[in-house]
């Protein structure tokens, strides 16, 4: 038996509206919002008294999704260190292919994004960068050259 597909990646955020605005600016579409609570939520995530709001974002092609989650109870705990470097164990980054990396960076900066390094070129194939997005996550951008 094999998996059918990867359904989504969840990111816990402290400001759901700001995270939705960030990923909308990137080009994702808001599929829907919901409040999640009850025994099924407690049992699924292994916490008691879960009450959260989620926003499901999807890529324009409809193949990939991000679930943005704001926990009201129990309160989310902060990661240590607050903005971990790219070589920290665990979830590394989320990468997006974009048409115009410079325009995308400029638009995301209005939502608080900051480059970790600079835009670099890999041979004559891609221009790439990492930037810090909502809740400190690292967002990678890749623009195909030519």
TrEMBL record:
The keyword Metal-binding applies. Transmembrane segments: none annotated. The keyword Metal-binding applies. SUPFAM superfamilies: Glyoxalase/Bleomycin resistance protein/Dihydroxybiphenyl dioxygenase (SSF54593). PROSITE patterns: VOC. Keywords: Metal-binding. InterPro entries: Glyas_Bleomycin-R_OHBP_Dase, Glyas_Fos-R_dOase_dom, MMCE/EMCE_epimerase, VOC_core. CDD domains: VOC_like (cd08353). This is VOC family protein.
